[in-house]
Amino acid sequence: MKTSMMRRLCLAAALALAFAAPGFAQGTYPSQPLKLVVPYPAGGATDALARMIAQKLQESWGQTAIVENKPGAGGTIGNQMVARAPADGHTILIGITALIQQPPLMEKLPYDPLKDFAPVTQIARSPSLFVVPLDSPVKSLKDFVAMVKARPGKYNFGTYGAGTSAHIQGALLNMQAGIDLVHVPFQGSAPLLTNIIGGQVASAFIDSASARPQLKSMRVLAVTGTQRMPSLPDVPTLAELGYHSFEPYGWFGVFLPAGTPATVVRKLGDEVDRILHLPDVAAKIEGLGLQQAGGKPEEFQKILHTDSAIYAKIIKDANIRLSQ
C-alpha cells in the first residue's frame, strides 16, 4: 500500500514538473550570455542593427549580449553556426533576405532556411529603388523601357554581386519588360553607387539604405514593395506600373535554431518587438534608410514562406545560378 502510494506521488510530481517546464524555461531565460551572430563583416547595416539590439537586450535583461561577426560564403558560415547551435535561445542569428534566396541559387546548402531556423521577428525592411544616372535622358520607367528596346544590347544594369536581390530584381525586369539589359556585377554597394552616379552603368536596383546618402545624385524611376516610400511620395511602385513579383521587401530578421522552445521564441520576439518601438531605436532605424518592422513569429514565418516561393520562381525562370 505504501509502495503504491509512493508511486502515485512520484508520478504526480513528474507530471507537475513536465507541465511546469515550459513556463519555467521562459521564466529563467536567458540564463547565460547571449550571442548575436551576424554572418557578414562589421560595419554594415546588419551589424549596426545587431549591436543596437544587443545593447538594449543587455540593458533590459541584465544579461551580457555580444555580437559575433562570422562572414564568409555569402553568409552561409554564420547561418550554419546558428543552425547547429543548442536550441536554448542563447545563440541568435541576425539574418537578411539572402537567407531564403540561397536554396534555388546554390546546389548544396548545409541547412534548410525554412526548417532549420525558428523565425522570431523582423527588425526592419528595405524597399529597393530602380535608379538611373541624373544625366539619363529618361524621366520614367516607361521611357527607360522604350529607350532600351530601341537599341538592343546597348544598355546594362549594375548589381552588388551575382545572386543578390539587385540581380534577381534586374533579371525580373528584363523578363517582364521584354528587354535585354546586360548584367554588370560589382563587389558590393559602394562601387555600384560610384558607377551609377558616374554614368558607367545605365541602371540599377539599389536598396533604400545604400541609396539614401546619394539620392540627390541619382534619378529614381520606381520602387519595389507594396506601397510608395514616404520619403519618395512621387515615385510609383513597380506594381502600380503593371509589374508583378516586386512586392517583397528586403528584410533584416531575428532567428533561433529550430527546436527552440516556443516560450523562449515568444519571449525573445516580444522583447525585440518592444525594443524596436522605442523612440531612439526607431529613429536609428530610420536614420539607416530602413523601415521599422517587428511583429510576431508566425507573421514573420508567413513572410518567409511567401517570399521564398516568389524568389524561387524568378531565379528558376531567369536561370540564375551561383558557383560553389
Would you write up a description of this structure?
The longest helix has 27 residues, at 2-28. The protein is globular and about 65 Å long. 44% of the residues lie in helices and 19% in strands. The chain has two domains: 34-126 and 250-318, D-Maltodextrin-Binding Protein, domain 2, CATH 3.40.190; 128-223, D-Maltodextrin-Binding Protein, domain 2. It has a six-stranded mixed beta sheet with strand order 2-1-3-10-4-11, with helices on both faces. The protein has a three-stranded antiparallel beta sheet with strand order 8-5-9. Strands 6-7 form a two-stranded parallel ribbon. The chain is of the alpha/beta class and 324 residues long. The model is unreliable at 1-26 (pLDDT under 50). The protein contains eleven helices and eleven strands. Helix 1 (2-28) runs parallel beside helix 9 (262-276) and helix 6 (165-177) crosses helix 11.
Describe the SSE topology.
Elements: H1 2-28, E1 34-38, H2 45-61, E2 65-69, H3 76-83, E3 91-96, H4 98-105, E4 117-126, E5 128-133, H5 141-150, E6 156-159, H6 165-177, E7 182-185, H7 189-197, E8 204-207, H8 208-211, E9 218-223, E10 250-257, H9 262-276, H10 279-287, E11 291-294, H11 297-318
Parallel strand pairs: 1-2, 1-3, 6-7
Antiparallel strand pairs: 3-10, 4-10, 4-11, 5-8, 5-9
Helix pairs in contact: 1-9, 4-11, 6-11
Tell me what portion of residues adopts beta-strand conformation.
15-25%
Question: Can you identify the CATH class of the largest domain?
Answer: Alpha Beta
Q: Percent range for helical residues? A: 40-55%
CATH superfamily of the largest domain: Bordetella uptake gene, domain 1
Q: How many structurally independent domains? A: 2
- What is the alpha-carbon Rg in Å? 23 Å
Spell the H/E element sequence: HEHEHEHEEHEHEHEHEEHHEH
- Which regions have little confidence, pLDDT < 50, spanning 5+ residues? 1-26
CATH topology of the largest domain: D-Maltodextrin-Binding Protein, domain 2
End-to-end span in angstroms? 68 Å
CATH architecture of the largest domain: 3-Layer(aba) Sandwich
Structural class: alpha/beta
**Count of separate DSSP helical elements:** 11
Mean pLDDT: 92
Largest sheet: 6 strands, mixed
Global outline: globular
- Total strand segments: 11
Strand order, main sheet: write it out. 2-1-3-10-4-11
